[in-house]
Design a protein that fits this description.
Elements (H helix, E strand, L loop, with lengths): L11 H7 L5 H5 L4 H6 L3 H7 L2 H12 L8 H4 L1 H10 L4 H9 L1 H8 L10 H17 L1 H10 L3 H7 L5 H11 L4 H13 L2 H8 L6 H20 L12 H6 L2 H11 L6 H14 L15 H7 L3 H9 L7 E3 L2 E3 L4 H17 L5 H10 L1 H11 L4 H14 L3 H4 L18 H8 L13 H17 L8 H17 L3 H9 L3 H29 L3 H16 L24 H6 L22 E9 L3 E10 L2 E10 L4 E5 L1
Antiparallel strand pairs: 1-2, 3-4, 4-5, 5-6
Pfam families: SAPS
InterPro entries: SAPS (IPR007587)
Protein name: Protein phosphatase 6 regulatory subunit 2
């Protein structure tokens, strides 16, 4: 029992520091050198911060290592050097940020010819990024004195690490007044315009893609950080330029130039979709789309429509269901996303966009593609969102797709005149009259029934078609323009009108009933719900190991946050009175950690199921009440 410990024995690192001729490489070979730096080992930091040592470290991360050795060994020391330079120790930050010769050596990396070594570029980006955060004033002042800085970064934008350098300048500069100064400087250097110039058919695809991603990140970062500049009257200059009509027009001109390419079109659409974002998933704040963006897009809608008709040629694709001779393609999918986004962001003041889409019969074309590409659920979702956007207010309940967003505060009384733009426009085709939405639903449903009765597979769009049908019925009964929709249904040919009434009363009603029963009995949403519950439990149970006074394994009461109940509610499309149907893509699963009671309580219009989840603190019973009559699902504990 009398073990002996020599707690004062010097480590091998200390022994090395005692040597008069110790080298930096010898110290870097020690496994604990980084930990000792972070632990503020005074002797080690004094050695590392010597002028020659710091120059050697910066040289390692900016110079191609010698060839002829194993790849993993070539970059061993550059990697350790980067970790030492970015370990966020004050004396290292001060030395690197305050010494101009060191900054010059670091900056020289940008002056190398393309292409840059991507690994070294990541070391450079991480190091300069750390300095922008920790030694902001010194580094920003140094970079602003470099006349060609931005040109060099954009020259190397095909290396993704250069995107990080730009985003650091936009998101990591504090305090707000200095951040605004930096943004003004970047705007004077025409950063936004120069990035848009890179989304051009004449540029290589990697450069276009990185420029597009950088623009998207700038837009989102600028919007997310707008509240940090509330005390400053001047708006974000980069965002102002990117939202301007001139800037969007330039992007569109590049996309639809004579030598236009699929890469240019897709990367351009990504930027436009970001500009049209009203709200991003996980963010409470909502945004208003600048009307100048829509004004710039409107003249080019005909070009987007043409892409749906004549997309870039693609080779036949082998799928699990056979060879697809004419794949839908990424271009048409992105155009469908754009149309859905435009319909969601359109308002009474932007009705010109909806009217132009109506004139072009774009919705009719999208419905053609919906039924043609039977198994492309990515497309089916976008078309469903388009229909929902036209038949507001259901659209406010279905904004799930990233890039489409949702308004945080929608008007409690939507403007009917706005909604009629695509539902019923006297001189233009309409969703019901020209697109024949009701007829398409009936014919597709009957065709699917016939195929299944003959032993064939259920059509891949049936889940989305069910939700589209429910959206029509919901708005026919309760929507703000239900009178107009009712009138249009009445004007249908007698045969279709009778078939529609029978379909709604019998077929659709029975489908909804079956989906509700399947939802309760087979727990189609249990996978989503239980995953959320598990994640919440994990967050509650797993605590940082930095509190010696608390036993993290002690049994405690688990309190479930509200969000653990919501995923399942949404996945059955019954949130906020949405139609009660199950998704076509949903699948049944049971929780391995849960114990199902398997009991349901039912009445005429209400079905109840319970599921008991076993946690470390005991059992938690989640109760799902489905009110079929009022199309609601409610979770309780």
């Amino acid at each position: 029992m009398f073990w002996k410990f020599d707690l004062h024995t010097s480590s091998h690192l200390e022994a090395l520091l005692d040597k008069e001729d110790v080298t930096l490489i010898e110290l870097m070979d020690e496994e604990d050198v980084l930990q000792e730096c972070k632990a503020q080992n005074r002797r080690l930091l004094l050695f590392v911060c010597q002028d020659q040592c710091m120059q050697d470290l910066v040289h390692m991360i900016t110079t191609e290592p010698p060839t002829g050795v194993e790849e993993i060994m070539r970059f061993k020391y550059p990697n350790i050097a980067c970790e030492l330079l970015t370990c966020d120790v004050g004396v290292i930050n001060d030395k690197l940020g305050n010494e101009e010769p060191l900054l010059e050596t670091l900056y020289a990396f940008l002056e190398q010819p393309s292409p840059l070594n991507p690994l070294l570029a990541s070391f450079f980006s991480k190091t300069i990024g750390n300095l922008i955060t920790r030694k902001t004033e010194q580094v920003i002042s140094f970079l602003r004195r470099k006349e060609g800085f931005l040109s060099l970064v954009l020259k190397h934008i095909d290396t993704s690490a250069m995107m990080d350098v730009l985003l650091r300048l936009i998101s990591c500069v504090e305090p707000p007044p200095l951040r605004l100064e930096t943004l003004i400087w970047l705007n004077e250097e025409k950063l936004a315009q120069r990035l848009i110039e890179l989304i051009h058919p004449g540029r290589d695809e990697e450069r276009q893609s990185n420029a597009s991603q950088t623009l998207c990140d700038i837009i989102r970062l600028s919007r997310d950080q707008a509240n940090q500049l509330q005390e400053i009257s001047q708006p974000d200059p980069l965002l102002t330029v990117l939202e301007s009509q001139e800037c969007v027009e330039q992007l569109l001109q590049n996309m639809f130039s004579a030598e236009s390419t699929e890469s240019c079109i897709i990367n351009g659409i990504q930027v436009i979709l970001t500009l049209l974002e009203i709200r991003r998933p996980g963010f409470e704040r909502s945004y208003t789309v600048n009307s100048s963006i829509l004004l710039a897009i409107q003249p080019h809608l005909i070009h987007f429509h043409q892409l749906l008709l004549e997309p870039p040629k693609r080779n036949p694709m082998l799928t699990s269901l056979g060879v697809l001779e004419e794949p839908l393609g990424n271009t048409r999918l992105h155009v469908a996303r754009l149309v859905a986004s435009l319909l969601y962001t359109s308002s009474a003041s932007h009705a010109v966009v909806a009217q132009e889409l109506c004139r072009l019969n774009t919705m009719d074309l999208l419905l053609d593609l919906f039924f043609k590409y039977t198994w492309n659920n990515f497309l089916h979702l976008q078309v469903e969102l388009c229909v929902a956007a036209i038949l507001r207010p259901c659209a406010h309940e279905m904004r799930l797709q990233p890039g489409l967003g949702s308004q945080e505060k929608s008007s409690p009384h939507p403007d009917p005149s706005q909604d009629q733009t695509l539902i019923e426009t006297p001189s233009e085709p309409s969703l019901f009259q020209h697109c024949h939405l009701v007829q398409r639903i009936l014919e597709a449903w009957e065709e699917n029934d016939k195929i299944q009765s003959e032993g064939g597979m259920r059509r891949g769009y049936m889940g989305h078609l069910t939700r589209i049908a429910n959206t029509v019925v919901h708005n026919l009964e309760k929507g703000p323009v239900h009178t107009q929709i009712s009138s249009l249904i009445t004007e249908l040919p007698e045969d279709y009108r009778g078939r529609w009434e029978t379909f709604v009363d019998q077929t659709l009603s029975e489908t909804n009933r079956k989906n509700t029963i399947d939802l309760v009995k087979t727990h189609t949403c249990s996978s989503t719900a239980n995953t959320a519950v598990f994640e919440t439990c994990s967050k509650e149970r797993i605590q940082p190991f930095d509190d010696d006074e608390e036993d993290i394994w002690e049994e405690k009461e688990i309190k479930f946050a509200a969000q653990t109940k919501s995923p399942c509610v949404w996945s059955v499309c019954v949130a906020r009175k949405a139609p009660l149907v199950a998704s076509d893509s949903s699948s049944s699963s049971s929780s391995d950690s849960g114990e199902e009671e398997g009991k349901t309580e039912s009445s005429t219009n209400e079905t109840v199921t319970k599921e008991t989840i076993t946690t470390g603190a005991g059992k938690e019973t989640i109760r799902l009440t489905v009110d079929a009559k009022n199309e609601r699902a409610v979770f309780s504990r």
